[in-house]
Amino acid sequence: MSRRFPDGAVVRVRALFPPGHCRTPHYTRGRCGTVLGVADHQPNPEALAYGRDGLPRLVARAWVDTGFRERLLADVNLAALELGIDAGGIPIRAIANEPRTHNVIVCTLSSCYPRLLLGPSPDWYKARAYRSRVVREPRTVLAEFGLE
């Protein structure tokens, strides 16, 4: 994956305030700074908290391996097994985003989130405010996540 900003680039952090959890600290939002370097891939702290290794696997692999991406789109459960991930017995369907189409999946009860595959769902995903708002105004919510 290529870097978006080179060392020395002056950048501004988006001043977005999405509902629920966001990893961008409030004190940095809307502020300018200079890219000093890129930290290597860091484990996902939420996954670490639940005893998993926190390393991106399924989606990250699909980003860099087109063959795996095609297998994932054809059969999520089987593709997950290639990485040693047991997705459970319920068939899961993957839908790819396209350059002009971003898919949003909303479960009104948060009971269909694929926990075995992705780990525990983040708190913001379960928040009633997020679920109801993403159904009413999906493009606005996606823009707040940086997907314009």
Helix content bin: 25-40%
Neighbour order of strands in the largest sheet: 1-2
State the major sheet: 2 strands, antiparallel
- Helix and strand sequence: EEHHHHHHHH
Which structural class do you get from the secondary structure elements? Answer: mainly alpha
Give the overall average pLDDT: 79
Q: Return residue spans where pLDDT drops below 50 for at least 5 consecutive residues.
A: none
How much of the residues is beta strand, in percent? under 5%
**Span from first to last CA?**
20 Å
How many helices? The count is: 8
Apparent shape: globular
Count the strands?
A: 2
Radius of gyration: 17 Å
Please tell me about this protein's structure.
The protein is mainly α. Helices cover about 35% and strands about 5% of the residues. The chain has helices at about 45-50, 60-65, 65-75, 75-80, 115-120, 125, 130-135, 140-145; strands at about 10, 30-35. A two-stranded antiparallel sheet has the order 1-2. The protein is globular.
